[in-house]
Design a protein that fits this description.
Blueprint (H helix, E strand, L loop, with lengths): L5 H11 L32 E12 L4 E12 L14 E11 L4 E10 L5 E4 L4 E4 L2 E6 L2 E7 L4 E8 L4 E2 L6 E2 L7 E16 L2 E14 L7 E11 L4 E9 L9 E5 L5 E5 L4 E8 L2 E9 L4 E7 L5 E2 L2 E10 L3 E7 L9
Antiparallel strand pairs: 1-2, 1-13, 2-3, 3-4, 5-6, 6-7, 7-8, 8-9, 9-12, 10-12, 11-12, 12-13, 14-15, 14-23, 15-16, 16-17, 18-19, 19-20, 20-22, 21-22, 22-23
């Protein structure tokens, strides 16, 4: 959903709670925001939480198939302080990288946490860059280059938009719950052309990029969500998310977006689509049926690997078949306990 990703915020909030000071008022995500690009592709330090989220599916010349993920996550920890040193704790950055090797039937993930420090991690409009150590997303206009090196894998990927970015939601905000500020500003690149290398393999394919910034989102009665990115072979894209309540019902603020072949976006409300779980791996429904009747979409989501679990949530590469075919990513949180934020 949020492309989102609140679960990453939860991971951080558990370890950062002692650092979060008082006296600094973060802004709320409210309707009427005036977007300014390219500036809004980068940091918003007056909001508590922000992330840049890349997922993609690529192939090699010898039948290799990979799903990749790279996330840069900022959690604000600002407070009134006379400490103005380079090491003052104002923002912390979590970076998360994952790789699905379909042919080898392997899945790896890695993560790192750093304070901003003197250039250790950050997001900078001036530098046109988001980074954490030697993991980075370097921008050149709207083209983006991803680099990540871990113990088990490395990738160097060039991403070029095949369609313009989309502002998700309505009235400039993606509302996630009833109440003032329970929303995010949410921008997506729904179709990025990918080329580069994973390990030593030349690959090409397509990716999805989400950027969100906000201060609060989930309500106390919400337990988690299921989020789908769908890149169809007929050159259309779909994003859907449902917010699950603790009583088992689906929150009416669940929503989505359809992007047509020319790049025009259409907002989808909860009544416009249905998500039906079909089979599970452990606690997670890894196969789903997605229907959007008004668009004649009736497709089945199946994982490239059933085990693409990262700590206490599941996120991985998937295939779609049915009235259309395609690829994408699925994220599911809250199945191993309630989401806390």
């Amino acid at each position: 959903m949020t492309g989102a990703r609140l679960f990453l915020a939860i991971l951080l909030s558990q370890c950062l709670l002692p650092l979060l000071g008082s006296g600094f008022e973060y802004r709320e995500a409210l309707p009427g925001y005036t977007y300014q690009f390219p500036r809004d592709h980068f940091e918003h330090e007056d909001f508590r939480t922000e992330w840049w989220y890349y997922t993609g599916n690529v192939t090699g010349a010898k039948g290799e198939r990979y799903g990749f993920e790279l996330v840069f996550f900022r959690q604000g920890a600002r407070h009134e302080s006379s400490d103005k040193s380079a090491w003052a704790v104002e923002d912390l950055y979590l970076a998360h990288a994952a790789l699905t090797d379909a042919k080898g039937k392997r899945f790896w993930f890695d993560e790192r946490l750093n304070r901003t420090g003197p250039g250790v991690a950050g997001a900078s409009f001036d530098r046109q860059r988001v980074w954490n150590g030697n993991w980075s997303a370097q921008w050149d206009g709207e083209n983006q280059t991803l680099d990540a090196i871990t113990e088990h894998f490395r990738f160097h990927l060039q991403l070029t938009p095949d369609k313009p970015f989309v502002i998700q939601g309505e009235n400039g905000v993606s509302q996630k719950a009833e109440g003032r500020g329970r929303a995010s500003y949410y921008v997506s690149f729904p179709l990025l052309k990918v080329s580069g290398t994973i390990n030593s393999t030349q690959v090409q394919g397509r990716a999805w990029m989400d950027h969100e910034w906000f201060t609060e989102q989930l309500a106390p009665d919400q337990a988690g969500w299921d989020w789908f990115s769908v890149q169809l072979d007929n050159q259309t894209e779909l994003m859907l998310f449902e917010l699950r309540r603790k009583d088992g019902s689906i929150d009416p603020y669940s929503s989505g977006t359809f992007v047509d072949a020319k790049g025009a976006a259409r907002h989808l409300r909860r009544a416009d689509f249905s998500l039906e779980p079909l089979s599970r791996w452990e606690k997670y429904p890894v196969e789903w049926r997605l229907r959007v009747p008004s668009l004649s979409i009736d497709i089945t989501c199946r994982p490239v690997l059933r085990n693409q679990k990262l700590r206490d949530y599941w996120e991985g590469a998937v295939d779609y078949s049915g009235t259309q075919t395609g690829v994408g990513y699925l994220e599911m949180t809250g199945y191993e306990g309630p989401v806390r934020f």
